[in-house]
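User: I'm writing a short report section on ligand binding and want a predicted complex to refer to. Could you take this sequence and 6-phosphogluconic acid and write out the structure as tokens? A short remark afterwards would be nice.
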Amino acid sequence: MPGEVRVFPNLEGLSLAAAESFADAAAEAISQRGRFTVALSGGSTPSRLYQLLTLPPLRQRIDWSRCHLFWGDERLVPPDHADSNYRLARETLLDGVPLPVAQIHGVPVEVGEGNDVAQSYEEDLRDFFGRDELWPRFDLLLLGLGSDGHTASLFPGSPALEESQRWVVATPPGTLPPPVNRVTLTLPAINAAREVLFLVAGADKAGVLHHVLQGDVGLPAARVRPAGGDLYWFVDMAAKARSGGL
Ligand code: 6PG
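Assistant: Sure. The structure tokens for the complex follow:
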């Protein structure tokens, strides 16, 4: 079983622990490197985590002036669209913390079609992390788990799963809603992170979580194994239900 699994009674407990981990990772990165780089996850699970970061005590505990926010994936819709991961973060996090706008590194969905957006976002990442770097090294990378085993926008059977050079690629819709084109960090880019934290909640994730933790590499989430970083799974009891052996 890859990584450390922590089980919580419910989504609130999971989110509180994740918010504490976020703050701890920020403090460590800022003390060691003068900045904190985090890639946010989309989907609904992280919403409560994001809200908790805007409330005392964590809002004050985090030095937002040293934080840089990115996204692990984004849907190719306008930033004010209901399906936008950026909009989710703006409404639950960005509007509630004193984060300098220049440190919000959104996916440039406006530049064109999927490949244009992927290349542009990758250029932004390379400009930020360094042109000589083989991969971006996020201090913290948040991920969710789809009921089909996808993570970020890496869907089962996708050619994107075999990408070994690019940091960001465009992907077509998966089988789960919303049925929109996306861009996503690639597996090597994800696996270069210092810390990867999966947030998984709900009974609908129980079956897939079990298979992922058993190492079923047919499921994209099972291929997240940060070579030089820590991997954590924060799951609630409902998602644990059939994930025996946790
Ligand atoms: C996306 C997300 C995706 C999400 C999972 C889980 O853009 O769709 O990045 O990978 O994390 O689908 O979504 P829920 O948290 O809504 O279950």
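A remark for your report: Residues 39 and 215 are 24 Å apart (CA to CA). Residues 41-45, 73, 85, 144-146, 150-153 surround 6-phosphogluconic acid (CB under 6 Å).
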